[in-house]
Amino acid sequence: MQDHIFIGGGGEGYAEAQKLLLNYTNRHGLIAGATGTGKTVTLQILAEGLSAAGVPVFLSDVKGDLSGLAASGREDFKLHEAFTKRAATIGLDLQYDKFPVTFWDLYGEQGHPVRTTVSEMGPLLLSRLLELTDVQEGVLNVAFRVADEEGLPLLDLKDLQALLLFVGENAKDLSLRYGNVAVSSVGAIQRQLLVLENQGGNELFGEPALELSDMIRCEADGRGVVNLLAADKLMNSPRLYATFLLWLLSELFEELPEVGNPDKPKLVFFFDEAHLLFDDAPKALVDKVEQVARLIRSKGVGVFFITQNPADVPDDVLGQLGNRVQHALRAFTARDQKDLQKAAETYRPNPRFDTAEAIREVGTGEAVTSMLDHKGIPMIVERTLIRPPSSQLGPITPQERAAIMAMSPMSGKYDKRLDRDSAFEMLARRADAAAKEAEEAEARAAREEEAEREFKQARRYDGGRASTTTTRSRRTKEPESLGGALADAFVKEMKGTTGRRIIRGIFGTIFKSR
């Protein structure tokens, strides 16, 4: 049984062999390096090795190049001779092959649609996505609390917009129960939701929602499925991209059971362009990411962060990354040199060379690497020639992608959007009922006023005097406003909600019992 993935090796001055041990892949990893130094190829060979070992993989295709995993490499490829030479140098018997790929796309254009619901996303990640202030985040938490206790499903953005309208109209009553709910904050959140819609965020929210089991699966031949998220268009909205990947990571954390120390991971998750996750992130969020990175390995999930510079990843998170592949860093400025030295200091030194100098000098397709050994201890840093991929280097054609999607088991499952009864419809019915009740009360009041006028007029003719008691009995209270009717309905609905509250996990996402 295969217990490792061959990363690369080399000749004189290079490592003999560098291997990623499968039983330590859930100790996470880092792939770093400047643009054009070979990070994409490293991603590709890791995905190939994991798939061949029966481990499902999730990775985002930022540039479109990784779709080549679905096609076999060819001997007529222009780099075939160079690949063959490198394979001989590092002792690899290079065999071209393709791998099982499932394409996903938030926009449903280059892959099967992938969605979640607003409720599953939760207030913390949604606040991050909308770039809300602390006060606005507090109001959003109140809105989610109301939805959870009221049994109002928040499936898409129109559900959330309807709920916020309800919260704004009943801000006074809600403030008494949950603390200050400023109407101005509700308005600010609504504006940010419009911005999110304009960025295509509406495509992310809705049903059918993604089932993780559709990603964590193997083919009949035992190879793990490579889940490829088309991210070239998604990268135009970097906050949406980072929040979606963080949500997916949190879902894995919340849903998967503890497995201890497995012989191989259940899934390996590659977080490309990781700096987008941490740029301007509040410390509370970074702390939660560090907590998830520390705990999710017991769920059998390995996480690899891919970025240009290790300095993009906070130290607390960086300390959790045991397997590292460092491609070249450019050090032209004083800050670059400082970052280079910091990156070198995170490795166990090798007496044969200076680590910082090696990081600066390695060429394209080369790297300095440090993997965990059989005792789980980081090995000394080594210069490594990265092995060539077995699959196609570069993207497949749109026609090839369409053919693979048509043959996929996911074909048709997520393509048609569902719009079932949810908060938008429920609140609309409440508003209609309240409006109808207000109209009926107004009509009753008008009829009673008319009857009272007729009664007084009749008493004038017979010389009598209108009875105060009778008049008072016919009078009714002033018709209440639509907001007041909604508030009354809300108070009535709030009775008896104890025990119906939805439990939320570490990122505020819904905790689903197993």
Q: Would you summarize the structure shown here?
A:
This protein has 514 residues and is an alpha/beta fold.
What does this structure look like?
The structure is a single chain. The chain is α/β, with parallel strands linked by helices and 514 residues long. The chain has 2 domains: 22-115 and 207-407, Rossmann fold (3-Layer(aba) Sandwich); 120-195 and 421-514, no CATH class. It has helices spanning 39-52, 80-90, 118-130, 134-150, 157-169, 171-178, 183-198, 238-255, 275-278, 283-295, 315-318, 334-344, 355-361, 398-407, 423-461, 468-474, 482-494; strands spanning 4-9, 17-21, 29-32, 57-61, 101-105, 112-113, 226-230, 267-271, 301-307, 323-326, 366-370, 382-386. The protein has a 12-stranded mixed beta sheet with strand order 2-1-12-11-10-3-9-8-4-7-5-6, with helices on both faces. Helix 3 (118-130) packs antiparallel against helix 4 (134-150).
